[in-house]
Amino acid sequence: MRKGCHAVVALLLAATAWICVLSGCGSSGEGLKVGEAGRSRPLPIGEVRSWAYQLQGLNEPGAVEALESSAYDMLVLEPTCTDWSGEDRYFDTAGMVERLKGSAAGDGVHRKLVLAYLDIGEAEDWRWYWNWSRAWDPEEPFPPDWPGFILAPDPDGWKGNYPVAYWDPAWKDIIIYGEGTGTHPDRDYRSTTDEVLRHGFDGVYLDWVEGYEDPDVAEAARARGLNAAEEMSLLIKEIRDYAKRINPDFIVVQQNAAALARERPETLRLIDAIAQEAVWFDGTSFNDWNDIEGADVPQDPGLTRYYLELLAGYRNAGIPVFDCEYTVKEAERAYAMSLEQGFVPYCTRRPLSRLTTTPPPR
């Protein structure tokens, strides 16, 4: 095809994408498809201008279709098949990822970038790897069959979540290497990173990086003569190194814990972006999408200033900064403030169980 024809096709695709945005392509329906050549080319993460974040409800009717037909450049999603609390272990995560990677980003030319949510600082008792007892009385010691890397209950009261000694080889085996996790007929993966790679995700979105700041975790590290911040940076490096041996284009995004780069500057070389929750607005309800307390709780101004100061360091280092604001009523203002800082914002509700009703201005 002649060069001029390429340009015309690109313009037509971009125009189609813009029409899709204006007509509300965030709703479910037939997704905007990209050509075979474009389908293999995601937007570089530094060029992402819109993103969405969904951790629940992906197994609901129409959920994947809604994501597919949206015009977001990047999606951060729960690898649903790793939830073994019910039938989700049979969810076709690989099929979902393949479908979403076949749909267009906002420019109509590139495909969407699809990242997997991964908690690296806490064990979760509904995950595939949890084969220990669950009956625990908070007034009693942990059950004797629990592994030694489990340190404490979640400090924010999240039931079934437990901060871990993430430097422990047994935990790293679960998260990365999968050498001692055995096999099971209900999974084709041996570690959480292995699942991400096998099922086609473009990279990971790492949660609970702030685990190094948890008092129980920090004390456990000191007792072993370790530095908790250094060990977190090392864990991120091991995840990145392992994944890039298989997929050289693998992406690593750090959620929260913006102070880590100040304590361990080498972290800036290990991540492709950072995402910060609740710079300006938070929510206190985590389960019911319609609960008014799931959004529009103003952040403490001092904490906002602290976040902005830390995130400026990432921006100055050329690291893209994403932010997730939990707001509905103040979404327009939150988008404006985020964009003014050079961030890539997304405004939604804390339950993260569907696409937002307040998409970005674009």
Explain how this protein is built.
With 362 residues, the chain is α/β, with parallel strands linked by helices. The protein has a single domain, classed as Alpha-Beta Barrel (TIM Barrel). The chain is built from 11 helices and 12 strands. The chain has helices spanning 3-22, 36-39, 63-69, 93-101, 169-177, 192-198, 215-223, 228-246, 260-263, 301-316, 331-340, and strands at residues 51-54, 74-77, 113-119, 122-124, 161-163, 203-207, 251-255, 273-277, 281-282, 297-298, 321-326, 344-348. It has an 8-stranded parallel sheet. Strands 4-5 form a two-stranded antiparallel ribbon. The longest helix has 20 residues, at 3-22. The protein is globular and about 55 Å long.
Share of helical residues: 25-40%
Strand content: 5-15%
Number of strands: 12
Poorly predicted runs: 1-38
Number of domains: 1
Gap between N and C termini, in Å? 31 Å
**Main pleated sheet:** 8 strands, parallel
Features:
362 residues; alpha/beta; TIM Barrel; eight-stranded parallel beta sheet; two-stranded antiparallel ribbon; 11 helices; 12 strands; globular; disordered N terminus
Topology:
Blueprint: H1 3-22, H2 36-39, E1 51-54, H3 63-69, E2 74-77, H4 93-101, E3 113-119, E4 122-124, E5 161-163, H5 169-177, H6 192-198, E6 203-207, H7 215-223, H8 228-246, E7 251-255, H9 260-263, E8 273-277, E9 281-282, E10 297-298, H10 301-316, E11 321-326, H11 331-340, E12 344-348
Parallel strand pairs: 1-2, 2-3, 3-6, 6-7, 7-8, 8-11, 11-12
Antiparallel strand pairs: 4-5, 9-10
